């Protein structure tokens, strides 16, 4: 798998992957999420490609205090090949290069398989409550 920064020519493939992985929810327009990300640290939006097919994505962020992970996805038919771990290592390296001391991410408590994946690559439950406030509603 080749890991590289997102390229616009892969936009529809990325959105299809997110849909296949159940990451698209009504309150978030994935195309708008991509456009927003391309305005802030676009080099932290990575895709994994095999034979010109997008098989993995991750969207990293860093605001000077903590790094964040969003949209980690691996094509269901390509799981258990190390692609998720590889793309996470790539975004972690880029965050470390920016001086990021810690990465946070959120997972629904019911998503046991993803929690197990993150635990296996060194992430732990910080025992905090995640709160959110929507500032803008996607159409």
Automatic annotation (TrEMBL):
Residues 1-139 form the N-acetyltransferase domain. Keywords: Acyltransferase, Transferase. Pfam families: Acetyltransf_1. The keyword Transferase applies. InterPro entries: Acyl_CoA_acyltransferase, Bact_Acetyltransf, GNAT_dom. GO terms for molecular function: acyltransferase activity, transferring groups other than amino-acyl groups. This is Acetyltransferase (GNAT) family protein.
